[in-house]
Amino acid sequence: MMKRLVLLAGIFCLLATSVWAIEANELFNTMRTKVLSVKDYTADVKMKIDVTYMRIPQLKGTLYFKSPDKMRLERHGGLSIFPKKNINLTLSNLIPTGQVAVLDLGPTTRNGKKLRVLKVIPEDEQGNIVLTKIWIDETNLLAVRTETTTRNDGTVIMDLEFGNYIPFGLPDKVTIFMDVKDYKLPKGVAMDYNDDHINDTKPKDGKGTKGTIQIQYLKYTINTGLKDDIFKGKKGEE
Amino acid sequence: MTPIIETHELSKSFKDFKAVDKLSFSIRRGDVYGFLGQNGAGKSTTMRMLLGLIFPDSGSILINGNEFNNGRRDLLSSIGAIIERPDMYGYLSGWDNLKIFAALSGGKIPTSRLHEVLEVVGLKGREKDKVKAYSQGMKQRLGIAIALVHQPDLLILDEPTNGLDPQGIAEMRQLIVSLSKDHGKTILISSHLLAEIEQMATRMIIIHKGHKVVEGAVGSLLNPDETLVEVITNKDASIKGKLAASEWQKTIKTIEDKLITFKMNPANTPALNRWLVAQNIDVLEIRSKHSLEEYFLSLTNDTVTKN
Amino acid sequence: MIQLLRIELYKIFKRPRTYISFGIVAAITFVIQLAMLTDGKTFIGFAIQGINEQFDIQGNMLNGYLVTYIILQSLLIHIPLLVALVAGDSLAGEANMGTLRLLLTKPITRPKLVLIKFVSSFLYTVLLIIWLAVVALFFSILLFGTGDMINLKSEAFIMILKDDVLWRYFAAFGFATLAMTTIASLALMLSAFADNSIGPIISTMGIVVVLTILSNLEIPLFSHIKPYLFTTHMIGWKGFFDEPIPYAAIGKSCMVLVAYTVGFLATTIFYFNRKDIKT
């Protein structure tokens, strides 16, 4: 009797997980479809880069995006600075494409909201993304946080806040946390004045540091069929 | 009458070198005061002290009876000076130089005065040239113009004929005499040549190694009766006897070989000459110089031998 | 006083030597601008290598603002020489020419003469800096346009928005004027000690070079005296291109520079007032 009971419970559990797994898969795919439904957009943004060694004011500009991975900040004559990563600062790029395995890590609460956490592992082992954890708001079908482990660029965490563009799955505010390598210009190239206060912000480990990029989206124009030319632009002064 | 300048035991040393040593003298209004001394005797140092360029170690300077430092400003606006070389801004024109120093002299000086003073020193027509293109004489004259432009009562001229050609020296002399006679200026003029002082000065001082040797009116210091008349004759054994018997005996100072030196007024030289000829004594040369000059020259020799 | 100053400025600006400085400033500026026109992109590429590994920067980085900064960075080290050329000559040059004794027989007090020499050296410095502003800033903007400015420090990459740059340059030029005035007062002081103008000019440069080296040496022995050297504070203009602007440090630098200037000037007046004029 006891044995049977254990077996039943085992089967039940197995069934349950597979049901959940299907559910999780479905949830992920639906959400991905929603995200990918935005083929391109143009948005007025405010961007704040917060990296210890970079002192950059808030940048206002126009952000162009085209699926799957084209992104460009236009600053009307000003400089635009973007992390040079294989990943872009957009959700569609942090969510693995193609065949994936989805694991359900169960419900959680974040900022008083009930969320579901999924772990998504792409089957393509050559891709940059090793795995992504996604926190999903099930009611609105929105990814509010992703934690993506990449092959080349360390771990990138993205927090998304939604408001006006929920139907398109487009956030009002995105905060990206990423690893940044340390930077030092050799003495002699730069002549410093008053270097005291720099030392305060210097990372203690001396190796790498965390960087934050915050983008506020003020107004989106979606799916206008942006041309690729827009993204060519002037390619820095490399 | 209060002297315009009066010094009392003025002393100045540069390291171990005593340039001026307890020098006292006074200059009266209307004097052309000659400052005679060898190079390095302390003339320039004294003049610089009178102008406040160098500070005395001890002693005092009274200007119009007042302590020098009290009325320095007023004093300097009533002094015109040339100290040693007349150095100017070579890259500026004579006119610019004159204008600049006129403006610095205190009080407003009309342009007409600048023209006037250029006329006086004879630089009219050359005032627009750059000073670096001027000859030494022109610079000296511009220096005088600058010294004169603000109509000072007192002129301090340190070796104003230095570096001038004979013509320039003569002109400078005339100018100085005229400034005194016609314009009533009090003039302090230095020189290392007695003859120069003799021709211009009314009073004089001789200084040597920072000390005062003698001070007084030129007329009395250079009394003509004190003139030395030197006669060079062919050697004649009878000459001593002839002279001893004559009225010239009392004027004889020395007899050395062919050179006989008389101390007398040079006005008597023609009479002496006639007498010598009448005695059948051949006269090869007659020359005269003042005893002070001899004394002065002995100072020179002293300096030369010591150096 | 005004008239004396006018005369002094007239003397300064009638001299061909005075304009050498303006020529040198223009020449160096144009050379750097030319170099930036031809090779600027390579230069920037090299400079931002470290940043470029991780960030992609797009847009016209090589704009007039950055070029001006590069010019100031290399030129402001040499401006002391140009300032010394005039300030170091101001008393010693007159002594050398022989005009000083004539000048001092005029009814002007010596402290007044020193003050006039100082003020005229200051005005010359101001004009030189204005000239620098015109050729470096104005012409760079004309040639390279404006834009957001990047500033590379040894441990930081700073970006300043286009509209936020210009006032910083004016502040920097103001600071540079103060720093150069300190040099002028140093040169003037050395000028009072000397009777020829080469000495003070060379000595001023020598002092600036030696102290600048001390200011930059990373040796603990010197780190104690560093804050007291005026050369340490002369590059304070760079503070205006930092983010956030270190106002406290800049203010301290200003105070040190003012203290030095007053000190040099007071020493000059004290010494010159008792100096025997023998030239």
Q: Tags for this entry?
A:
heterotrimer, A: 238 residues, alpha+beta, outer membrane lipoprotein receptor (LolB), chain A, eleven-stranded antiparallel β-sheet, 42% strand, globular, disordered C terminus, C: mainly alpha, two-stranded antiparallel ribbon, 13 helices, 72% helix, elongated
How are the SSEs placed, and which strands pair?
The complex is a heterotrimer of chains A (238), B (307) and C (279).
Chain A lengths: L1 H35 L3 E12 L2 E2 L3 E8 L3 E5 L5 E4 L7 H4 L5 E11 L2 E10 L6 E9 L4 E9 L4 E7 L11 E9 L14 H6 L6 E15 L6 H4 L6
Chain B lengths: L4 E10 L2 E11 L4 E5 L6 H8 L7 E6 L2 E2 L4 H6 L1 E4 L11 H10 L7 H11 L14 H13 L5 E5 L7 H16 L4 E6 L2 H7 L2 E6 L2 E7 H4 L5 E7 L5 H6 L7 E5 L2 E5 L5 H10 L4 E8 H16 L1
Parallel strand pairs in B: 3-8, 3-9, 6-7, 7-8
Antiparallel strand pairs in B: 1-2, 1-4, 4-5, 9-10, 11-13, 11-14, 12-13
Chain C lengths: L1 H12 L2 H32 L1 H4 L2 E4 L5 H12 L3 H12 L1 H6 L1 H6 L5 H35 L4 E5 L2 E5 L5 H28 L4 H19 L3 H4 L6 H5 L12 H27 L6
Antiparallel strand pairs in C: 2-3
Short description:
The complex is a heterotrimer of chains A (238), B (307) and C (279). Chain B is α/β, with parallel strands linked by helices. Chain B has helices spanning 43-50, 72-77, 94-103, 111-121, 136-148, 166-181, 194-200, 218-221, 239-244, 269-278, 291-306; strands spanning 5-14, 17-27, 32-36, 58-63, 66-67, 79-82, 154-158, 186-191, 203-208, 211-217, 227-233, 252-256, 259-263, 283-290.
Number of strands of chain B: 14
Structure annotation, total helices of chain B: 11
* Number of self-contained structural domains of chain C: 1
Low-confidence stretches of chain C: none
Q: Radius of gyration of chain C from the CA trace?
A: 21 Å
The side-by-side strand order for the widest beta sheet of chain C comes to: 2-3
Classify the secondary structure makeup of chain B into a structural class.
Answer: alpha/beta
| CATH fold name of the largest domain in chain B | Rossmann fold
Described by the principal axes of the CA atoms, the overall outline of chain B is elongated
Q: How helical, in percent, are the residues of chain B?
A: 25-40%
Percent strand of chain C: 5-15%
Largest interface: A-C, 42 and 47 residues
- The average pLDDT value of chain C, as a whole number, equals 91
Oligomer: heterotrimer
Portion in strands of chain B? 25-35%
The rounded Rg of chain B comes to 23 Å
- For the termini of chain B, the CA-CA separation is 42 Å
Largest sheet of chain C: 2 strands, antiparallel
Biggest sheet strand line-up of chain B: 6-7-8-3-9-10
Helix-strand string of chain C:
HHHEHHHHHEEHHHHH
